[in-house]
Amino acid sequence: MITDKQVVDALREVMHPEIEQRDLVGLKMIRDVNVEDGKVTLTLVLPFKEVPIKDDLVSSVREAVTSLDANLKVEVKLAEMSQQERAAFMTEAEGGPKPAQSMNKIGHAMAVLSGKGGVGKSSVAALLAVTLNRQGKQVGVLDADITGPSQPKMFGLHEPPAMGPMGIIPAETQAGIKVMSINLLLPNEDEAVIWRGPLISGAIKQFWQDVVWGELDYLIVDLPPGTSDASLTVMQSIPLNGVVLVTSPQGLAGMVVRKAARMAYQMKVSTVGLVENMSYAVCPKCGERIEVFGPSQAMHTANQLGVPLLGQLPLDPELACRCDAGEIEKYTMDVFEPIAEKITERASARPSTPMF
Questions:
Q1: Domain span at residue 238?
Q2: Which DSSP letter does residue 286 get?
Q3: Helix, strand, coil content of the chain in percent (nearest 5)
Q4: pTM more than 0.85
């Protein structure tokens, strides 16, 4: 007579085809095993309802059970993991929690994304970090723009981060903002990062898993422009409380940022809203607002996306000078404070669920 325990033991030999040296029982993918009257029923729990290897997993489970007795009838039911179960599964799939992760407690992770380069996405990310820091929040900046990193330059950071027993210690600005960027690991800041997608994705995961961020109220993630591997990796592997979209007045920028918004929607990451950068310049002599790049398209774009327009930022020479000098923390934040307030108000209380 075959017992429930024998069935479970047999399933311990079924290795997950995509996760090295991990069996289905150890990954908590087997549930409700029951043997009765020559029939075995069990539930195979999947991280997502439709995974490409679903049929292969079902076949492997059937083969393992019938290896005990070829006459057994096997019924494999399918179920989908809850959010908590899925998060635990992803941690196990990565080989368990990293030492640094056990020390990290991050309240909100916010990503800043643009459709195209040159719209000031990185400066908006830095301004958000500085504004929150001035409000007394503990803030970190993860520079996920691996091939075009700019956060260290804007914050005046040049020394490589230290290595601690638990992981990488992020660099710290004068005001206490923690920063991690590939540029801090290069022999010189002009060094080109000529990497293919998998290497870039691996670096971003390391910045999340192997950096000792400690306790943060907000982690600001500066994403590269577009919908490439790097942005995909962040949305798949970091639990985000929202994405802030950045655009400029040109219609082209609006068209491309809509692509980025659709990516966030497909990855089930909430969009906090839209910021239009370089909306206008103020004449230093008469104070007139000049629309350097033409009439604003921001409200039209926001309406198309169904998200609020968080604010419009001017084209300010002082900001450019402060960024070049590594002094963004000395920039006057009056124009950005209302935007930061809206971002924190609209940040999702429930973070997205990583896919791996």
A1: 101-346
A2: T
A3: 35, 20, 40
A4: no
